[in-house]
Structures are given as C-alpha cells and as structure tokens.
Amino acid sequence: MSPIFRSDKAIKDIIIDNISTAILMVDHDLTILYINAAGEMMFDISAKRALGQSMRHILNVDDKFFNRLETTYNDNHPYSEHELSIGLFSGKELTIDYSVTPIMLPGLSCQLLIEFTSIDRHLRIAHEENLISQHQATRSLIRGMAHEIKNPLGGLRGAAQLLENELPNPSLKEYTDIIIGEADRLRNLVDRMIGPNNLPKPRLINIHEVIERVRQLVSAEAANNIILKRDYDPSLPLIIADPDQLIQAILNITRNAILELKDQGTITFKTRPRRQYTIGSHVYRLVLEIQIIDDGSGIPEDLIESIFYPMISGRADGSGIGLSISQGLINQHKGLIECQSEPGNTIFTILLPLENGLKNTNGEKR
Q1: Which domain-ending residue is among 120, 151, 176?
Q2: Mean pLDDT confidence for 311-328
Q3: What DSSP letter does each residue of 318-360 carry, written as one string?
Q4: Which candidate, 4, 37, 34, 2, places its Cα nearest to that of 22?
C-alpha cells in the first residue's frame, strides 16, 4: 500500500489543532485571524464566531493587556506574562500564562501569534489526579476492611442461630433475632460501601436516552415544585458505555440534589462536548461532559473535598454512600466526577472519554 502524503500546511494544521495550548493569530487591529481547537475551548467560542472579531469582544480584561499587544505589534519585540487574570463575557474567569510573538508571513503585514496556557487547567489536572488516586486508595482500604468485618460477622450470625436452637425459653429468641438482624444490617452496609462489583457491560448508547431515563425515575419522586430542565447538545456522538451503570451514577447525584432542594427548586441536566480535554493525566481528543446543576443551598465548604468518600454526608439522615458509588461507576468508564458548589449553584460534572469514529445521535459518521 502506498503511503499517503499530506502537504506541509495540512500537517501543521493537524498539529496546531491537536495541541492543548490555545493559539490565536491577530492583526494590527487585534482582529482574530486564526484560533485553534484549544482556543475555542478555553474562550468558550467557536472559530466561526471568533474569526473577524476583535479580541476586545471575547476577552474581558483591562486595557493594559490590549495596549501592550499594540505596542508589541509596533516595536516587533516578543514578550511573555505570567498569572494574568482574564474574564470571558460568558462570566467565566481564567488565570493564564501567555506569550506573544510577532511574525512576518510572505506577502503579508506583521501578525501576532499569541499562545495561552491556563494555570487553572494545570491546577485542575493536579486536583483530578489526586482525586482519582484518593478514590482508588479508599476503595482498596474499604475492600480490605470489608473482608475483615464480614468474616467475624458470619461467625457471629452462625453462633446466634446455633444458640437460638438451644434456648430453653422461646421468649429468649427475641434477643438472638436482634443479633442476627443487626449482623445482616451491618453486612448489607459493608456491601453497599464496596459498591457494585460487576465490570461494565459496554455497548453503543445515546447519553440523552440515559439521562431521560433518570428524569423519568426522579420525576415520580420529586415534589411538584421541583423543575427538571434539559440543556442537551444534539450533536453529541453515541458513546460506548454500560447504560445501567451510568443511570445509577446519575440517579444517585440527582436524588441528592432533590433532597437538598427541599421540595422547591430547579435541576438542570446539561450535556456538552469538550475537545482536547484532560482527565487525570490522560488527554482525550473528545470528552463528554454531563452536568447536573441545582439551585439549592449548596454543599458546605468543609465537605466539598470529601463528599465522594464513603460515610460522608451533609445530611443527618444520609448514608454518604451514593456519591462514592457514582464515582466508582464513572471511574470504571475511565471518567471522573467533579463538584463545585456555592449557595444557589451546585454543579456535579461527569466527564467521560468518547471513542473516535463513532456515529452521532442522528446515526451519521463523525
């Protein structure tokens, strides 16, 4: 088979569109001439909307930033700056490092090549790696504890049954029943802490059908004053996953949100694609983002870092097991659940890698 040769320009375009650094090319008016895929993701804007726009229309930052770019264009000297805080007009805020390089292309006037690196992204990656390693360590610890607890529980239960058969007075059976019942309750609690032990049974599914199933289940449980909203991206491709496990993971999060709302509020299910996205230490070309958003009172700040641990709950009647199970189910799909919360806005974000070359939800090849 003959090798396929690509032009130098095609190869460069492929490389630039697949690197994780955001790249913009602007002219003397700071009009955007080029933006790569990482830039689209960082600045929450498509290339179609960005091209021809002034940088002033997509970045909310003080005039010193723009004045320095104009100075660089005139004096032709590159520079770099670290830890600059910028805002997007969507309301999102970023902390970035960036470098500016004036370049001359044949037959064209000077242009500025600007490379942006999100410090927030590096902090997020470090946090995710720590979250994944902590969850794996916790799971190993719990499995070891479960083994040590369940063995004596079995002996205790068996001894209570033997004792029951030897009791001279049938009225004393009440006490052995308590021993047996409490032993069974503790065993079931340990099993729930361990979570599902089955490996995923993946198949090609539409994630929106999974979320709709969750909506059907919780709509019967939720109070009439709780509104369940959809904000779906219909262009998302199908995903290879275990639908039952995803339903369970999303259902656990949604039920927690319903309890936090206390009979009134809104829960929004939102889906979006994320390109060139890092989960833990692995960069994926395409990632599915599912968000469950509620406008309840929020999660206390002292709990936010530990809510995925077993037995951690913000409610007196909570078991603290549901979110740990959800994290384990998503981890089995090489994904991750994150949480951010403030009063009136709690967001659980599920990140799942998407396989290349799958069909989209309309059955078309991507």
Answers
A1: 120
A2: 66
A3: --S-HHHHHHHHHHTTT-EEEEEEETTEEEEEEEEE--TT-BB
A4: 37
